[in-house]
Amino acid sequence: MSEKEIIKVPSEVQVIRKLAEYVEKYANEAITRNSSFTIGLSGGSLVKYLAAGLPKIETDWSKWNLFFCDERYVPFDNADSTFGLYRQTLIPATPLEEEQFVPINFSLPLEECAVDYEKKIREVFKEPEKTPSFDLLLLGMGPDGHTCSLFPDHKLLEETSCLVAPIADSPKPPPERVTMTYPLINAAKCCIFAMAGSGKAEMVQRILRDGENLPAGRVSPTNGNLIWIIDDGAASKL
Predict the structure, then answer these.
(1) Is 8 helix (H, G, I), strand (E, B) or coil?
(2) Which phi and psi angles does 163 have, rounded to 5°?
(3) Distance (Å, rounded) from C-alpha 97 to C-alpha 212?
(4) Sheet holding 177-180: strands in order across?
(5) Maximum C-alpha span of the chain
(6) What CA–CA distance (Å, rounded) separates 219 from 197?
(7) Backbone phi, then psi, for 87, in 5-degree steps?
(8) Which of 2, 62, 140, 147 has its CA 20 to 30 A from that of 201?
(9) In 3D, which of 135, 187, 146 has the Cα closest to residue 22?
(10) How far is it, in rounded angstroms, from Cα 216 to Cα 165?
(11) How far lies 153's CA from each of 161, 170, 185, 214, in Å?
């Protein structure tokens, strides 16, 4: 079971700062240990948080390998593309190169795209049989409690064989996506949720206080750490 740590800070600015501190810590520990750092990114407010916080950290950027916890099945120049957003905001603000990101291949049919993305992950980790263990996954949570593209009451919540799965019926547009599943998410060394604002308060309460079985609440790294960084607004109902 994972060790869960809930870190409360006064404001969104502090959420950004604390998140950047943790990314720096996990990156540098991984680089010391393995000469590389594997990180999974999510969309939403995390894009803004990382673009604001990461340029201030000290790390060997050349050792980073960046993946996506989920991605919309759209071209990179589409406004819905998570990689497209990072390409516009994070890459220009840091020494990261576009080649260090491992995006989906949306030119493939959706199901093949998911199979191909799992293959790409396994190639970087060089572990064809074992479940890869990311150094860090940065996760978001939607207003319905979803994380990655794992939505309440969806059959993908029970997926055990695929590490990366296609979804063609996302209740949130766009409907077609590629997402990590729990076997891969919960194999990570650390998963971090970072969020701010009273709009998150009800879901934070339902997951962290009430223990409701919502998708974000099912993240529990088997041999790793789970960290929630929340501001006063998001923590207001705890």
Answers:
(1) strand
(2) -85, -30
(3) 40
(4) 70-72, 177-180, 164-167
(5) 45
(6) 21
(7) -65, -35
(8) 2
(9) 135
(10) 17
(11) 18, 11, 18, 9
Cα 87 to Cα 107: distance, rounded to the nearest angstrom? 19
- For residue range 20-58, what is the model confidence (pLDDT) as tens digits? 999 999 999 999 999 999 999 999 999 999 999 999 999
78/163 Cα distance (integer angstroms):
26
Q: pTM of whole model > 0.70? A: yes
Query: What is the SS3 assignment for 150-169?
Result: ECCCCHHHHCCCCCEEEECC
Query: Residues 172, 183: contact at Cβ < 8 Å?
Result: no
Residue 215 dihedral angles phi and psi, to the nearest 5°: -50, -45
Tell me how far apart the alpha carbons of residues 209 and 200 are, in angstroms, rounded to a whole number: 13
Residue with tokens 């093949």, as numbered in its chain:
112
Q: Tell me the pLDDT tens digit for each residue of 133-175.
A: 999 999 999 999 999 999 999 999 999 999 999 999 999 999 9
Q: Please give the distance of CA 205 from its chain centroid, rounded to a whole number.
A: 21
How far does the chain reach from its first CA to its final CA, in angstroms?
Answer: 23
